[in-house]
Design goal:
The chain is built from 17 helices and 9 strands. The chain is of the alpha+beta class. Mean pLDDT is 84; it is low at 157-170 and 394-398.
Length: 435
């Protein structure tokens, strides 16, 4: 017996504002309806994750030649998958395993859609649909089970704005669930009761599409351009930001006026000119931007310049502000691993692995656990933490300290005192501090 779309109750309620004419309870599970719902899910999920990217500062850089705004369904699928591989999402209440499952399902959906384009006759397309029906059904089930919150129109009358054709889009769309809410502009707008999706930006302006009718609308709005500009800077889309500059009012004011310094610092780092990149970011006041990728840029400069103490402090601050970045946890894990603090290193590596899957992380955790296991297998030489027998070590090394009786006596007095048992040896190089 074929499945009916009416079983997806939560998904039906969620999509009610997007596609009010898509009556789930009246739709049979066939290729035509499934393909349409696939299109709706991909566009909607892409837009929701873009809005989460901007609002929650879950920023990431796309590969060269890729775009965040495209009418290409495969590009949108790639972007959704890229986001889910790096971050957890509060739009879908997914565990890490479920998030990995969703990525795998979406990869199979991408294969289905690519192969479907290669088929020329209806029979072949229907056979292909049968082959991939398992993955399509599982996407619908997972989306229906894990989608949280709702999309609603803001009731603030100040949000009414004119669009290019003289009509209105009133009340920006807001996504909200039990823990957060954020605006969906500029990725979705509501116009005459219809939800429009931002599909591309070109010389004519921002192009919004209606998935139901297939129509498009050009929009030029200063506030939305500012949001797009902020999004581009946060995700290091420098070429797109350059293209957008002529449309921005007061483009040279505030943090947006310094974006060229950030781009220059990024280019310098790509050329391994870390000191120059570091200086540019310091002069621009990188912390004032409050953008994770700019923070990480400075942290990597410090790491490559072996300024480990500064890097460690900045990393700790970074993780306080942006605890959802696996890269940050992995980097501070590397710091503790270099300091031979295996327990802290392992703790941060495991935190990183809870956020994002990484082959390198798995190898690091395996290596550190092997080191810990080897240490445990050795017999414990010191039975009492209060006493350390150094006689054997001294005899083996056959070292003698001559002419330092006063200093040695002071050291002994400090070490056996009840408080302040900390030594600090100072002096010029070669006077015998190490000995």
């Amino acid at each position: 017996m074929d499945t009916h779309f009416g079983q997806y109750v939560r998904m039906g309620k969620f999509f009610a504002i997007y596609f009010p004419d898509f009556k789930f309870e009246k739709r049979d599970f066939n290729k035509e309806n499934a393909d349409l719902l696939l299109l709706y899910i991909i566009y909607t999920l892409d837009g929701l994750l873009l809005a989460e990217n901007l609002a929650q500062k879950k920023n990431f850089q796309l590969a060269a030649g890729k775009s965040f705004f495209s009418n290409d369904i495969f590009q949108k699928l790639e972007n959704v998958i890229a986001f889910l591989q790096i971050f957890s999402t509060q739009v879908l209440g997914l565990s890490k395993t479920e998030r990995q499952t969703l990525v795998f399902i979406l990869e199979n959906i991408s294969d289905y859609m690519k192969n479907e384009k290669l088929q020329s006759d209806d029979k072949s397309k229907k056979n292909l649909f049968s082959d991939y029906k398992f993955w399509i059904e599982n996407l619908f089930k997972l989306f229906d089970k894990k989608i949280s919150g709702a999309v609603m129109a803001s009731q603030n009358p100040a949000n009414k704005k004119h669009v290019a054709d003289g009509s209105f889009f009133a009340n920006e769309l807001i996504y909200a669930n039990a823990t957060l809410n954020f605006s969906l502009a500029p990725f979705f707008i509501l116009n005459d009761g219809q939800v429009l999706f931002l599909i591309r930006i070109d010389a004519s302006g921002m192009i919004y599409g209606n998935l139901v009718s297939g129509g498009e609308m050009v929009l030029n709005d200063d506030d939305l351009y500012q949001k797009i500009s902020e999004f581009y800077l946060a995700n290091f889309c420098f070429a797109d930001l350059e293209f957008l500059q002529p449309r921005l009012k007061n483009a040279e004011n505030g943090s947006h006026g310094k974006w060229r310094a950030i781009e220059a610092a990024y280019r310098q780092q790509q050329l391994k000119l870390f000191a120059e990149s570091l200086l540019l970011l310091e002069e621009a006041g990188f912390e004032d931007f409050n953008k994770p990728l700019i923070y990480l840029l400075q942290i990597k400069n410090l790491a490559n310049l072996n300024r480990n103490l500064e890097m460690k402090r900045l990393l700790q601050k970074f993780l306080l502000f942006y605890p959802f970045y696996a890269e940050g946890h992995e980097m501070i894990g590397d710091v503790y691993w270099q300091e031979e603090n295996v327990e802290l290193a392992l703790s941060f590596y495991e935190k990183a692995l809870l956020i994002a899957q990484s082959k390198s992380l798995g190898e690091k955790i395996k290596k550190i656990r092997e080191t810990v296991d080897k240490g445990k297998s050795k017999p414990e030489v010191q039975k009492n933490d209060a006493f350390f027998d150094i006689t054997e070590t001294v005899i083996q090394k056959e070292e003698r300290i001559i002419g330092r009786s006063k200093e040695l006596r002071q050291m002994i007095e400090i070490l056996i005192s009840n408080s302040k048992r900390n030594l600090l040896l100072i002096g010029e190089r070669g006077v015998g501090k190490s000995a």
